[in-house]
Amino acid sequence: MKDIKTAFERSVKALTLRPSIGRGTSATTVRVTEGLACEITSGRWKLVADMPASSGGTATAPTPGFYGRAALGSCLAIGYQMRAAAAGVAIRSLEVVVEEADAHSPWLDVFASAKSVARTLRIVGT
């Protein structure tokens, strides 16, 4: 927790002094390899995505929805953990569940329009 708190405080100080460093960009390239399967690269990282057979894919990899939910959930969990560490609060267990369904392209909708978000926070004491 100490390392997280130190890094968080260092980032806050740096962004306060130079807000422009928070405006970085990065690029991710997605290439269809066969059918609906895609290879996703960003820097040194590489992922693959596909769709289930019922959607015309071959189910060789997780769906884009999996990655979208994973991105949102991990971003929230990491943010909660960082904020807790910065406040000196030790968290023994933290879990985020992300659910979403849509008939067509849910992730296009996620990025294209504002969302109403409902959260439930449950703190279990020792």
Secondary-structure element pattern, one letter each: HEEEHH
Low-confidence stretches: none
Strand order of the largest sheet: 1-2-3
Helix content: 25-40%
SS element count, helices: 3
Q: Can you tell me the CATH architecture?
A: 2-Layer Sandwich
What's the multimeric state? single chain
Reading off the top of the CATH hierarchy, the class is best stated as Alpha Beta
User: Shape from CA axes?
Assistant: globular
Radius of gyration (CA) equals: 18 Å
| CATH homologous superfamily heading | K homology (KH) domain
Written account of the structure:
It is a single chain. The protein has 126 residues and is an alpha+beta fold. The protein has one domain (2-18, 27-112): 2-Layer Sandwich (GMP Synthetase, Chain A, domain 3), CATH 3.30.300. The chain is 37% helix and 13% strand. Strands 1-2-3 form a 3-stranded antiparallel sheet, with no helix packed on it. The longest helix is centred in the middle third of the chain and has 23 residues, at 64-86. The radius of gyration is 18 Å and the shape is globular.
A few lines on this structure:
The protein has 126 residues and is an alpha+beta fold. Helices cover 37% and strands 13% of the residues.
